Amino acid sequence: MKIQVKYVVVLSTLLFSLVARTQEASPGSSTQAPTAQTQAPLYQQYYTVNEAETEKVTVPTKKATFSMAADLSPEHLLQSAQVVVVNLLKWLLHDEPLSIPQEKYLRKLHFGRWINDPTDDTCMNTRARVLVRDSQVDVTYRGPRQCSVEAGKWQDPYAGQEVTEAKAIQIDHMVPLKNAYLSGAWEWDYKTRCLYANYMNFKPHLVSSGAHENMSKSDKGPEGYLPPNENFRCEYIRNWVAVKAIWHLRMNPVEVQAIYDAVKQYNCNLNSFKMSLDGLAKQREFIEANLNFCIVNKR
């Protein structure tokens, strides 16, 4: 996933007059409009998180710092450490067309299904494991084998509502599979995409959400969907960009504009958008070490 970088764009100096520019055909092609296979405008530019520009921040040593920067308030500074972080709101602008998939997106073909991990000594698939992880109480199961979750207590962060029936919960991919596919995952092999679909090493990657909100979101980016629970919107945007950074996924100009607007409108804490460089590396190391997860467990 090597990317040619044209120049750097920093959030604080962005002039977001950029609007997604589309064309009816790529250079050198016929004048016919794009086919349904592209499933996306032909953006002439795209963005990625600028990992080359880092900074040191002081964080408390008693709190985990592998994902997001911790509380930086003065009372924590007596027991603290310097951590090198990447600012998820500093982006690289790539002045070249966003690549277009060669195949029409199909969930099962390109990302597979929920996988049952035999190493956890249960018959639960990824969906069930996320439901158990996120329930605020011990779950109950359907049937004596305890493969499928029936009830529990979940807080839908999108709607800000409590849900107690598992059938009313859907597991949302923070960056939806189709969005990931169009953002670069179409270039991956199947085993990488299947791992992405079942990835539990970064908790915000998979979200227990109410069925209504998950269907409302569908495959939309922040330009088309933000949770109705406004108290969760900053965290939602942060998690969105974090997933894109971990997996080297690209962001189109309209998506970036929406992220910028949301951060400004909801006065998001900019410190929460800082991710430790070590944590980012550990996520990618885990991905590399588990690329055969779906192949080994396919049955």
From TrEMBL:
Keywords: Endonuclease, Hydrolase, Nuclease, Signal. Residues 131-248 form the GmrSD restriction endonucleases C-terminal domain. Pfam families: GmrSD_C. InterPro entries: GmrSD_C. The keyword Nuclease applies. One of its GO terms (molecular function) is endonuclease activity. Residues 1-22 form the signal peptide. The keyword Metal-binding does not apply. This is HNH endonuclease family protein. It comes from Bdellovibrio svalbardensis. The lineage of its organism: Bacteria, Pseudomonadati, Bdellovibrionota, Bdellovibrionia, Bdellovibrionales.
